[in-house]
Amino acid sequence: MSFPCPTCKNPLGLTLEFIIKHPICLCPNCNTSFNFTVNDDIKKTYRETMSEINNIKNKHKAIAKFN
Q1: Domain spans of the chain?
Q2: What is the pLDDT of residue 61?
Q3: Is the CB of residue 60 less than 8 Å from the CB of residue 52?
């Protein structure tokens, strides 16, 4: 489920990866600005978690299919 813009209610289609890379963004429909800035500890935890997930996917890619 996509997070809707609180102003115009249109789906924003944002992912955690996009928010981490671009914490300040605009709604493409109504130009409402969003500030998703988080501290460096949260960014570090996110990167470590994604790395662990990718390692698991690579380890099991011969026996499982991941989207």
Answers
A1: 1-36, 39-67
A2: 86
A3: no
| DSSP code at position 23 | S
The dihedral formed by the CA atoms of 25, 26, 32 and 38, expressed in degrees to the nearest 10: -10
The span from the CA of 60 to the CA of 51, in Å, is 14
Taking only the tens place, the pLDDT of each residue in 1-35 is: 568 898 999 998 888 888 889 999 999 999 999 99
- CB neighbours (10 Å) of residue 57? 12
Q: Residue 65 has what pLDDT?
A: 82
Which pair of tokens denotes residue 34? 């969003």
CB 10 within 8 A of CB 25: no
Question: Rounded to two decimals, what is the model's pTM?
Answer: 0.64
